[in-house]
Design a protein that fits this description.
- There is one protein chain.
- The longest helix is centred in the middle third of the chain and has 36 residues.
- By secondary structure, the chain is an alpha/beta fold.
- Helix 8 links the parallel strand 4 and strand 5.
- Helix 1 runs antiparallel to helix 2 and helix 9 runs antiparallel to helix 12.
- It has a five-stranded parallel sheet, sandwiched between helices. Strands 6-7 form a two-stranded antiparallel sheet.
- It is globular and about 80 Å long.
- It is built from 16 helices and eleven strands.
Length: 518
């Protein structure tokens, strides 16, 4: 028998930008303008050494994106013209449609701007950006039709339909390429926004640590302002710059900086006064929601009298969504087993030739509602693996109830390759067909692990365990037990079909790049 490894399921939060990983705290952002003298106060206690960070001009990436959008619309017009040339018998219809679309490119860009496609606050999530791209493409195609009719040209209906579909696809692809380029530039310290965090309590420190760990989010933390902090460096590398009253002096030193207010660290009266004065000066102000583990997709700000209230959308795990998830699991697992069957036959032969023992390994895991089930895997360890576990406990490299070793001596030669490629997880598709597991869900835990869980972590048993999940695509064996707990609970609390699809999409590169596999 063998002990399951920490990353024993085949492979979301950005984070994304969150991102099928946990979302950053919800924020409210104001417009940018010159910085004034609000909260002038005395000089800051300690400012970061060196010159103020250089901020990439705001207009330059927007202009680059507009040029890319124009090229994408032109390419879509070319595809539509080719379709008309092939399917429409009217001579000259292809060139008429092409030039009608190209001459309206400025109109398309104006529509993109109207749909907030050049405002990062509205397109942080891919699903939001795609929805706005579809709306813009619809209005852009309508604009082509109206413009063509205005000059007595009747565009092909087939061409207009192809133009609509092509523009949706081509612009979405172009935007994804642009997103990846911008993320890479931010990771290298370019196109970043300097920010001061108001509040050095645990929430403020967590925000700073997150922004430090994930530079692709595009923030450079200058430091904290807090009236009650006891440490000169609340987070390693992020100094305490002074009290809240000194914020004006700090912003004069860094005129391009914005402010993130940790809502739980600052009294509401101070927050209101701070936000009002900073917004009057044109400073970006972002306010955390304090709901760290609630997806931003479930948050809606609405007025309640004179108070802005954040409504939290409940999670619906039953109904048609549950049926859709089950149907998708059945179809995908059946197709996956069918495709993988020849490869699994070869793997079975290699396992038998490499070491004595059965090909398949069965182990009791804890499923939904604490129901035990037998998980299936290709055997990757010696048959006496569980008997040898006690002698290896002192070499455990994991925290919490998990067990992992970088060079576990119980793993066979073939088993090490299977683990690196996650091929040992393929038999779990049969568990999915049986209904014990889902394609996406929390990691299936061992019974002795659940004995050490607290009441909060037990909530992960409200859903079926999965072959892949947020924890798996976030590093598997490279993540801590705290991350394991937070990511699994985040999935349980924020489950949706879109989240499952995003996690499955992220699983492919994680498996191919062998991130966290041991």
């Amino acid at each position: 028998m063998e002990e399951g490894r920490t990353g024993d399921t085949a492979t979301e939060p950005s984070r994304a930008s969150m991102p099928v990983t946990p979302a950053a705290p919800a924020t409210a952002v104001a417009a940018v303008g010159p910085v004034g003298t609000a909260f002038a106060g005395p000089a800051p206690a300690r400012l970061p050494q060196g010159p103020a960070p250089r901020t990439q001009p705001i207009l330059r990436p927007k202009v680059m994106l507009m040029v890319a959008d124009a090229a994408a619309v032109t390419a879509s017009a070319g595809l539509a013209a080719l379709a008309v040339r092939r399917w429409d018998v009217h001579p000259g219809a292809d060139s008429e449609l092409f030039w009608a679309a190209v001459t309206t490119v400025p109109l398309w860009l104006a529509i993109f701007a109207n749909q907030r496609l050049y405002n990062t606050r509205f397109i942080g999530r891919r699903i939001d950006e795609f929805r706005r791209v579809v709306n813009a493409s619809l209005f852009g195609t309508l604009g082509v039709s109206v413009t063509a009719n205005f000059v007595k040209v009747l565009p092909s209906r087939t061409g207009l339909l192809v133009l609509l579909v092509a523009s949706c696809l081509v612009v979405t692809l172009e935007r994804e390429v642009a997103r990846r380029i911008f993320l890479r530039l931010r990771s290298r310290g370019r196109m970043v926004r300097s920010v001061v965090i108001a509040g050095a309590n645990p929430e403020g420190r967590d925000i700073a640590a997150m922004l430090q760990a994930e530079p692709w989010l595009g923030y450079q933390v200058l430091g904290f302002v807090d009236d009650h902090a006891s440490s000169e460096e609340p987070v390693p590398g992020v100094p305490l710059l002074g009290g809240v009253a000194q914020l004006g002096g700090i912003l004069r030193e860094f005129p391009n900086a914005s402010v993130i207010v940790a809502a739980s660290a600052v009294e509401s009266a101070v927050t209101n006064r701070l936000a009002r004065d900073l917004l009057d000066q044109g400073v970006h102000v972002e306010l955390s929601s304090t709901l760290r583990d609630i997806s931003s997709q479930r948050l809606t700000v609405r007025p309640l009298g004179r108070f802005p209230i954040v409504y939290v959308e409940p999670v619906t795990r039953g109904g048609w969504r549950a049926w859709a998830k089950r149907a998708f699991d059945l179809v995908a697992a059946a197709v996956g087993l069918l495709i993988a069957s020849p490869l699994m036959a070869v793997v079975a032969i290699l396992v038998k030739l490499d070491s004595r023992g059965p090909v398949l390994f069965r182990q009791v895991r804890v499923g939904r509602d604490s129901e035990p089930f037998s998980v299936l895997k290709i055997r990757t360890m010696d048959v006496d693996a569980e008997a040898r576990l006690a002698e290896l406990r002192e070499q455990n490299e994991a925290d919490g109830p998990l067990f992992k070793m970088a060079n576990d001596p119980r793993i066979t030669r073939v088993g090490r390759i299977l683990r690196m490629t996650s091929l040992d997880e393929v038999p779990q598709l049969w568990n999915v067909i049986r209904g014990d597991m889902s394609l996406v869900g929390p990691r299936p835990a061992l019974p002795h692990e659940t004995e050490e869980w607290d009441s909060l972590l037990t909530q992960r048993l409200r859903v079926k365990p999965g072959i892949t999940g947020m924890w798996q695509v976030s590093g598997r064996s490279d993540t801590s037990f705290d991350d394991y707990t937070r990511l699994d609970l985040y999935y349980v609390d924020n489950w949706s079909l879109a989240t499952d699809l995003a996690i499955l999409a992220k699983t492919v590169p994680v498996v191919l790049l062998r991130k966290g596999a041991r």
